[in-house]
Amino acid sequence: MADDSPDRELPLAVAMSSSAVVAALAAGDDPVQTIAAATAPLVVQAAAAVRARWVKNSTQALQVAADHMGVGLDILLERSTAYDERLKLMARVIEASARSTVTEKIDALGRVLALGLSANGDTAEALLLASGLAVLEAPHIEVLGYLAEHPLPTGDFIPDTHPGTPGWQVGILGEAIPALGNVMDALLAVLSGQGLIRDATGTSYAATPGPATWVVAPLGERCLLMLDPRRES
Length: 233
Prior knowledge:
Layout: H1 6-15, H2 20-26, H3 31-36, H4 42-69, H5 73-80, H6 84-99, H7 103-117, H8 123-134, H9 138-149, H10 170-176, H11 184-193, E1 197-199, E2 214-216, H12 218-227
Antiparallel strand pairs: 1-2
Helix pairs in contact: 1-2, 4-6, 4-7, 6-7, 6-8, 7-8, 7-12, 8-12, 9-11
């Protein structure tokens, strides 16, 4: 008799997704054994090492989700495969957490998965949060956090032109975070593209046409909260 259990169907479902990471995790040799095989080509050993890290990271995210829900991984799997949107969310979380180099981001993705799978959770919002977190590397998180903690320029950072406009101009923000000044345009483009920040130009009476001025958007605030739940207090 065919085995139709969720555990049996999950690898096929995720492997058919658009994620090469998820497909690689669902099917493949034991990465530890591959790494240990000295006769394997170096490129194969390197790929196996990458896959081993993918497994570690994605497992961590799933465990965080299970812990937040107060269930075991088997129940988490059962709930994730109950609906197409939930399965899509789990695949997105696995993909993003596997590739992450930021521990806080891996845990945040686990919290997002728990949010999307909970009885009163919003799967649509969780999908957006997972997509937003997926693009964040440490520099993006630093800029997003700075904008949240400093909504308006103060002191020497108040611009000479358009001083009444809320938010930060890219050049001035680069001066405020000099280590990232040379890449600030690129960082803001990624954050804006995911809807994590928005251009506040024209939102106040004093604002006049001029350079874009950036502030944190609600989705960005939600991502920061997932990265550090202590922000809620």
